[in-house]
Amino acid sequence: MIVLLLILAAGAFAFADQIKALAQKVALANPPAVSTRHLAAAALVAAAAVAFAWPGAEESPPPQPVPSVLSLAGKFTSAADAAITAGLTAELADELEWDGQQPDPAIKTGQQIELLRTRARELRCAGEHLGERNPAAREAIGAFLDAKAGKAGGNLTAASRSAWVEAFRQISKAAAEAVQ
User: Fold this and answer.
1) Is residue 71 classed as helix, strand or coil in its secondary structure?
2) Do 86 and 175 touch, CB atoms closer than 8 A?
3) Cβ(167)–Cβ(117) under 8 Å?
4) How large is the angle between the packed helices 158-179 and 135-149, nearest 10 degrees?
5) Measuring CA to CA, which residue among 61, 152, 55 is closest to residue 111?
6) CA-CA 20 to 30 A from 89: which of 20, 104, 111, 160?
């Protein structure tokens, strides 16, 4: 479309004198009767031509899928280890959330969460340490937990408990995605 407009503009500049002389000749020979209706129609045609030729808002690209907060893809040495991590952290999130809804929660400090996490892993894995077999996953999960839930071992607030629950759920999701 722009090419056509450029060609027309070049032609108008190149033959401006001839076009002007022809327009004066036609205007003097037969003066047109122009009504308001004709002017309005011409204005609408001109507006439509400008709107068609004018570059509109660029079409936005389709939205990209939101990446996971944490990616553990390629960080496990086996799908089984990733599946164990996914299940273990999902269970920890559920237990911690449930405990927080009790009148007198059993887990009251960050240190108790760490002890629960360690003991649950030991019981589930019969003493084997998944982090030793999967150091890249261990580092990524550790850094993620530090960033999302913090390192403080002190008393839990509702907000800090919620941060731990959400962090465990995101780790579970990322580990489940790593299985696939």
Assistant:
1) coil
2) yes
3) no
4) 150
5) 152
6) 104
